[in-house]
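Assemble and predict.
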Amino acid sequence: MTYDYLVAGSGFAGAVLAERLASQLGKRCLVVDRRDHIGGNAYDELDRAGVLIHRYGPHYFRTNSQRVIDYLSAFTEWRPEAYRILSWTDGEYWPFPINLNTFEKFIGRSSTPEEMRETLERWREPIDNPANSEEVIVSQVGRPLYEKFFKNYTLKQWQRDPSELDPSVCGRIPLRFDRDDRYLSERFQALPKDGYTPMFHRMLQQPGIDLVLERDYREVAAEVEYDKLIYTGPIDAYFGFCEGELPYRTLRFEPETLQREFFQPTVQVNYPNDFAFTRIVEMKHITGQNLPVTTIVREFPEAYAAGREPYYPVPCPASKAIYEKYAARARAEPDVHFVGRLARYRYYNMDQVVAMALKEFDKIAAAG
Ligand SMILES: Cc1cc2nc3c(=O)[nH]c(=O)nc-3n(C[C@H](O)[C@H](O)[C@H](O)COP(=O)(O)OP(=O)(O)OC[C@H]3O[C@@H](n4cnc5c(N)ncnc54)[C@H](O)[C@@H]3O)c2cc1C
């Protein structure tokens, strides 16, 4: 069989590109994934108790991009949701990310946005251009709040002190002076109405797309003819680790089904200072399922080793230097498109990966 494109990976990057190339340009695409399912890390499924869970950790969809909303809406309806999380520390639940409610609880009395601003202005350390994640947070809220909510969570998650990590790691978390207690700030926050996996099925059902699961793309590449490759796996693996291995963090998920309707007050509770896990997630809060049982998932960050899932690129100066060498090699491969989170070695949210794939499609379409 001859294909125009071999697509390595069926996550957002691979699925969007295969769908666009097949439906808009009439290209024949073969999508290959080494896992036994489509959807990449966004894959969701019913567990044995019938509870809808996200196998690879909670995936909260959000975006400010109308193009991304319009594109995905052709494959799914949405269930609007304001994701709310809490932080468990000193034996109590705390509103998180930090907002006026958190500040009031911290000082032990009611307050105002003005007082919160003035106080943080006094607590914060004056650092004009924060160079790492510790500096980002202490320059916004000062050391006491940094130590209560950020320091140990980040250490657990990355096994590195925040001072060794890029500002982007902790800088992603909003700080609010009002009572907006949503986890995220984007204007569109919603989940695919009947789950991510059915949405991916609809995308990949286009005429012109074939799918092979549980195979490495390299084995399949040796068996079929194709013109170009869309590669969405780890960039260091593509080049046979010739510039050295890029560092990743991996996760262990420990699910538990409980014979009760709910376990915790919100979809996610962070544990910065207690236990080996970073968070407990209870998806039922946001999927709208009406069941007498619930499933919670404890999430344990672990060291990455060959054979495990490379969940998080580690954003630090040393990894950036290695990545740049691979990126230069990638630029010298005209028939390969490196797209997605692992191929670009950067923490991108789902909507950013969809936007990146649409942009790559524009380039391919414009080149004719
Ligand atoms: C724990 C966790 C929580 C997250 N939470 C959120 C969130 O709340 N909101 C959000 O917007 N984003 C979230 N993300 C990010 C989100 O998962 C990514 O943005 C998105 O999945 C990236 O899509 P992708 O296609 O680039 O990569 P992936 O989803 O990783 O897909 C890559 C696919 O390529 C396949 N592959 C790799 N190598 C090969 C090979 N050699 N042969 C064949 N197949 C191969 C893999 O099996 C995989 O299926 C989270 C990520 C993690 C890890």
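The chain has a mean pLDDT of 96.
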